[in-house]
Amino acid sequence: MLSQSFAAIAACVTGLALVPVAELRAQTPPLRVLVSNGMKAAVEDLRSQAEREIGRPLELKFNSTAGIRQQIQAGEAFDVTVVTSEAIGELIQQGKLAVASRSEIARSELGIGIRAGTPKPDIKSPDSLKRALRAAASITFPKDGASRGYIEGMFEKLGIAADVKPKIILAEGSADATESVAAGKAAMVITLFSEIVPIKGVEILGPLPGEYHYDIRFAAAASSSTKNADAAKKLIAFLAGPAPLKVFKAKGLERK
């Protein structure tokens, strides 16, 4: 009798693991997840695997970190958020996120993307970067991106802020910025590798050199008011674990 009970339990567990993702989404309330654009391509690719791992469907919403922070501060309901580590810390201090749930997830370098097949200017040193930015016909980056302040500060430090100001095209988001380079509407995009890699027709020229090297780090945490704490914990553990590393690397992210 006991062995039959164990067999029945095992069958149930196996059955759950084999439930198709589409059926899982139909049967179970979703876990609401707010994700920064810098993690968008990776999280989209990992979605089905994550859903199987936690036994719940995911309802994903993407925005800039600044936009997500505003949504959370305005009271939007959610279970988990994946945004910059800095924003996670701020939201924890404001009581919006559960401090014990915080985990570091990945990082992405800030760099320059150009249209595939176009000449590749040298940006391997601060001096060559300065020349390349001055020579560029136009430069785009997201107006609400987490790196905007750093980019504008870099222009100041390089002494080219006045030179490049007329050439700057502020985009509504990272996808718009990078896609404008693919379409030939802008010559260069300065954004995260993870926001360049997914866009067809754009290639990474390289990271910012020397003292201007910069990366953005992403973390995850659960809402302090989530009613799905167990599922939220499982999702965060999945994202912080080894399973996503191959996808992260392919999407311009690292775990260092």
Q: Overview of this structure, please?
A:
By secondary structure, this protein is of the alpha/beta class. The chain has two domains: 2-107 and 216-250, D-Maltodextrin-Binding Protein, domain 2, CATH 3.40.190.10; 108-215, Periplasmic binding protein-like II (D-Maltodextrin-Binding Protein, domain 2, 3-Layer(aba) Sandwich), CATH 3.40.190. The protein has twelve helices and nine strands. Strands 1, 2, 3, 4, 5, 6, 7, 8 and 9 form a nine-stranded mixed beta sheet that branches. Helix 3 (40-54) links the parallel strand 1 and strand 2 (58-63). The longest helix has 16 residues, at 2-17. Mean pLDDT is 91; it is low at 1-17.
Average of pLDDT? 91
Number of strands: 9
- Total count of helical runs of at least 4 residues: 12
Strand content: 15-25%
Percent helix among the residues?
40-55%
For the record, give the distance between the C-alpha atoms at the N and C termini, rounded to a whole number. 51 Å
CATH class of the largest domain: Alpha Beta
Sheet with the most strands, sense and barrel status: 9 strands, mixed
Write down the secondary-structure element order: HHEHEHEHEHEHHEHEHEEHH
